[in-house]
Amino acid sequence: MPQIHDTHAGPIGGLYLPLIAWEVLQQIRIRTIDQLMANADRLEQFDGVEPRMAQVIRQALACATLREECMLFEEHPGPWCA
């Protein structure tokens, strides 16, 4: 049986989620990071999204967003890094 901590890359780049979470996102037609960010605060309102799954999705989204911000910082560090 798949575990909630067994994560996999999926159709939304940079996001790693359990397979069941990917299936639910597909069912509720969330296919982009922008769609996910727009709906992150109300995931539990969708059929099939339990509170624990919503929490896991939000954590993965936060990590993906943080990774992206870190990459941008490395490409364009502020003047205090000179």
In short:
By secondary structure, the protein is mainly alpha-helical. It has 3 helices and 2 strands. 50% of the residues lie in helices and 7% in strands.
Walk across the major sheet and give the strand order.
Answer: 1-2
Distance between the termini: 51 Å
SSE sequence, one letter per element: EEHHH
Rg value? 15 Å
- The level of helicity is 40-55%
How many helical stretches? 3
Strand content: 5-15%
The overall strand count is 2
Largest sheet: 2 strands, antiparallel
Overall geometry: globular
Structural class given helices, strands, pairing?
mainly alpha
Q: Please state the average pLDDT score.
A: 82
Residue runs with pLDDT of under 50 for 5 or more positions = none
Explain what you see.
By secondary structure, the protein is mainly α. A hairpin with a 6-residue loop joins strand 1 (7-9) and strand 2. The chain is built from 3 helices and 2 strands. A two-stranded antiparallel ribbon has the order 1-2. It has helices spanning 19-27, 33-39, 51-75; strands spanning 7-9, 16-18. The chain is globular and about 30 Å long.
